[in-house]
Amino acid sequence: MKIRILVVDDELSMREFLSILLEREGYDVSVATSAEEALRLMESALFDLVLSDVNMPGLSGIELLGRIKRLSPETAVLMLTAFSAAEQAVEAMKLGAYDYIGKPFKNEEIKQLVKNALEKQGLKRENILLKKDASERDSFCGIIGKSPKMRELFDMIQKVAASQSSVMILGESGTGKELAARSIHTCSPRKSKTFVAVNCGAIPENLIESELFGHKKGAFTGAVSDRPGLFEQAEGGTLFLDEIGELPLLMQTKLLRVLQEREFKRVGDAHIRKANVRIICASNRDLGNQVGEGAFREDLFYRLNVVQLVLPPLRERIEDIPLLIEYFCRKFMVSGQTAPATITPGALKILMNHPFPGNIRELENCIERSLILDAVVISEASLPQQLSAGKAPCLTAECDIPEAGMMLEPLLEELEKKYLLKALEKTGGAKKKAGELLGMSFRSFRYRLAKFGLDCGDE
Fold it and tell me: Is 0.85 topped by the overall pTM?
């Protein structure tokens, strides 16, 4: 069906001009000579957008706007006037007008305003449907959950998606930060453009600038051709910077400049390029502490942390575990299998009681392993041994505080140092593998070693 637009203006020339202009753009246009006539038309037909003059005999455009918002809240409204009146503009925006434009206006200007208003209105409708769909299906944009904390998260994602602000997603490893970022992109006006994700901790320091901004042929050894970076690949869309806390300080400075100036240069190139990209970043670390330690720029932190989403760990939403198990059982169905595997009450009880330090990623691995052993039924016997035994990794066998009190910081530092050394011992000194044992990147592991004066090279 064509998009329906209603033009309301007491001037014949303006009605005819807007009708011709908008019909050429493919819209179905109706006209009204007064606010009263517009209301009669709206009682018998639905309109996606109303363009109304402000100053008309009888009911004014402002009064019409108020009536439209009560009669048809989903209809977008653009106000037109030959008089520049700031007070009227403020009043119109408060009453729910999408925008306010003065006569005379340029053809391209009104066409773009109409397009933007319709896109925003369409996005609102889609988000309402997504919200309804989530409440009925226990999921939202691929995120599984029905717990109160997840419902709050779904609502927050919808609110954040409509803006252009940078978003900081925080959460433990395995909680689904990239999935949340993709959901924001999917619900945003940028959804038709590219979503690009990059793990900042997985790129060698000497290649990060080239990876983000691209390079010119001959800029460095191995640069055999011009290459666009991730900012160019995400043009008009969303760039997701995962583990932003791993970004070296020099690159933090360059990223800050891009966010401030909205422009960048490829490595080895003098040409300045514009950056029309929305930034979403994520971290499983406390970036506030990193700022205090001088490992993360404070100005960049505040530039990125405009809106903050915190993903709950799995242990704080255990009511979602059965839903996730069902999802993974369907995901890992083997060829020829006609129905997903089931789970015994005993196995479900074990999984519901497990703290899952690795969160959803750990649960997924448990289910995949169990289904390899038995594709039909997940039982206590098919679960990993440490789960069946009711064991979970722990730091100390007991926890006690002396009557005289204690200094916690030195104790934690000593404990951290012991685990760093133990990880190195287990991996024969291989830092990357040692970092993986402790759930951190190579760069983060090396940083912690240096903090204790233990760094001994880049191997």
Answer: no
